[in-house]
Amino acid sequence: MIRIRRAVPAAVAAALVTLAACSGGGSTPDPSESLRPTARPAAAGVDDVAGAKASPRCAAQVKTLRMYAVANLNDVARSGKAYLEKAHPGLTVEIVATAPTYTALVQQLSADRSAGQRADVAVAGFDVLPTFAAQLGAQELSPRLLRASYDQRMTPLGQVGGRQIGIPQQVSTLALAYNLDVLERAGVDPATLTTTDGVIAAAERIRASGQDIQPIDIPTGQGFAQWTLNNLASSGGVPIQDDAGRPRLNTPQARAAAQFLARVASYGPQSDSPTSQGLPRFGIRKETAMTMVTVATLAGGLRFIQDQGERGFRAGAVPFPTLPGGTQAPVAGGNALTVLAEDQCQREMATELVVSLLAPDVIVASTESLSYLPVDTEALARLEPLYRQYPQLRAFNDLAPSLVAPPSWGGARGGELPQAMSDQVVRIMGGADIDQTLAAAQAEAEALTR
Known about the structure:
One of its GO terms (cellular component) is ATP-binding cassette (ABC) transporter complex, substrate-binding subunit-containing. Keywords: Signal, Transport. The structure is a single chain. This protein is an alpha/beta fold. It is built from 18 helices and 11 strands. The chain has helices at residues 10-22, 56-61, 74-87, 102-114, 129-134, 180-185, 196-208, 224-235, 252-265, 274-283, 295-307, 344-357, 360-369, 377-382, 384-389, 394-397, 417-429, 434-448, and strands at 64-70, 92-99, 121-125, 159-160, 163-164, 167-172, 174-179, 214-217, 288-294, 315-319, 333-339. The strands form 3 sheets. Strands 2-1-3-11-6 form a 5-stranded mixed beta sheet. The chain is globular and about 70 Å long.
């Protein structure tokens, strides 16, 4: 399996960044030191260039903050804890980071809330933000409270019904990675991979080139089947959820997306897990010429392939293709930071914690490990060495203005819909009739969201 580097603990990575910048020896600096805001005049659109600070009264009053995160974000949470506890002696930031998924985190928060356990800050997957707004008491946050360097183009991804419920922290999109050596031997120009027609034409040339390799693999597990279908339909201007929150799986765009996925499946077995199956098939065993990944895994994957030396290959990546005649309107994946505290002073301190979790140093350290789209412009500038090393990543940063929020389904059983739709897409890729399966998916979606 490809050993994509796990996120270096953000506090440790921030310290390493500081050490590298100093180019000297000595003791390891306190990670909270690198998170100190820079004092400058406030920029337009924000109240303070360094981001919101709690009032002296509230800073003196609040002694404990409680933050909930999924397990793999524990290191990032610790960076915020380090900064805030140093800035406010006597404050304790408690971190609850045992939930394995965003859905499990919602269940944990709901149970703790019912038991009277206070939560001040939480990480929310984009698709469950409506649950945070409707059931978990998420407070509205003004983007004016953020640092001046925060990329305000990201804020719509954290909105629910026009209200800023969360501040995007980690943002990802879909990518198509390719083996350039295989493509060149088949006479394929990577520039033709921008549309689904171009991808199919490339797959045909690869299959006809006599190389013993499957042309393309699009993993379907972990909700990727629904994400891919929606990403393609969105490129045609009609995502699978309308503005009123209703499913629309019976559109020409959804059908065109399904036709492409069915054609892809005709080239060979498609992986389930994108990380434990799709990436090893592509990067280690060289069984596939093209594969779908998220941009968050790209840096690690490219690094691994590059480190193989002569056993590796030239790898490239492009934003996931659009439908013919479509435009890039990628459906975002990722999470946002939410403030759940209701008491005024707890809310002020919770907001300051959110600001610290979005510090440029933390964003830089995180992106160097997991190549999410940077949500901070200062961090983006400081990541230039990473983009020089892996120029394949640059194109994804240009997608920020066109990002589309993922669907968030209402209804008592709306949470079941992503998996249900993924199952229907898998059926299509297994040979099921496209029209009948999409009709069944639409009926199932309408039933689940009542």
